[in-house]
User: Which sequence fits this backbone?
């Protein structure tokens, strides 16, 4: 897909025919230098924005053909998001923050229990009823993970989820995401500047100048002496 921002002289080609595929259940990292197009790519996969040219297929559906309403429904049902800044609503409790996407999706059913279970899994059982501005950065990021998973999304998208954490907390959050991925057979697509901290993953996609390459250091990027 191709994504161009702006017009005329201000035009920026953030993605330039970036083409790749991800299999269900894969744990995938997206790496590349600042400004290379990683977040743009994630926004396209996450249906938060549309490509200027090209298509995004999810579970066999050509999402570029869906209306705005259908896209929202699709996003709520299939996708979970974890951002670099946890973006919690500070007026709400930890538990309420995790419940929010579920309320938006309108599937309340066993919501309370599911949210509590997820918060237990991320080790925040004792913090559930605290207000979201009364917890640490690492805890907030774990809340964000629980919130990203509450709708049981088949695909979890994370943009530098450990970008603001110290190395110990970051390691914990990474292990947590890996174990959740295995346990729930979810697809994870994670933008990161620290792929070495993730250990073994199924695939690494490198973005360079808006183009996608498989592998951490694709042949085209090797320095020829
Ligand atoms: N909303 C926007 N409007 C105009 N240009 C944009 C917009 N978002 C991104 N860009 C430009 O598109 C290019 C890719 O940006 P993107 O945010 O995808 O990079 P990134 O790889 O995520 O970088 P970083 O690692 O710094 O987060 C950059 O040149 C950026 O300036
Ligand atoms: Mg980015």
Assistant:
């Amino acid at each position: 897909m191709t994504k161009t921002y702006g017009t005329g002289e201000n035009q920026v080609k953030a993605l330039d025919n970036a083409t790749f595929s991800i299999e269900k259940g894969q744990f995938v990292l997206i790496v590349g230098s600042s400004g290379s197009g990683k977040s743009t790519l994630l926004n396209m996969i996450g249906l938060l924005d549309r490509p200027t040219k090209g298509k995004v297929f999810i579970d066999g559906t050509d999402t570029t053909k869906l209306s705005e309403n259908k896209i929202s429904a699709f996003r709520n049902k299939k996708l979970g998001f974890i951002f670099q800044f946890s973006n919690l609503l500070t007026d709400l409790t930890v538990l309420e923050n995790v419940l929010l996407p579920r309320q938006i999706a309108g599937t309340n059913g066993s919501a309370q229990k599911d949210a509590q279970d997820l918060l237990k899994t991320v080790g925040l059982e004792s913090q559930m009823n605290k207000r979201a501005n009364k917890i640490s950065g690492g805890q907030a990021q774990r809340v964000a993970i629980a919130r990203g998973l509450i709708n049981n999304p088949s695909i979890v998208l994370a943009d530098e989820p450990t970008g603001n954490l110290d190395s110990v907390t970051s390691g914990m959050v990474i292990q947590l995401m890996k174990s959740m991925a295995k346990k729930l057979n979810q697809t994870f697509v994670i933008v990161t500047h620290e792929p070495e901290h993730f250990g073994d993953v199924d695939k690494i996609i490198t973005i360079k100048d808006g183009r996608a390459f498989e592998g951490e250091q694709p042949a085209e990027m090797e320095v020829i002496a």
In short: Residues 39 and 98 are 23 Å apart (CA to CA). The pocket of magnesium ion (ligand 2) is lined by residues 38-39, 159 (CB under 6 Å).
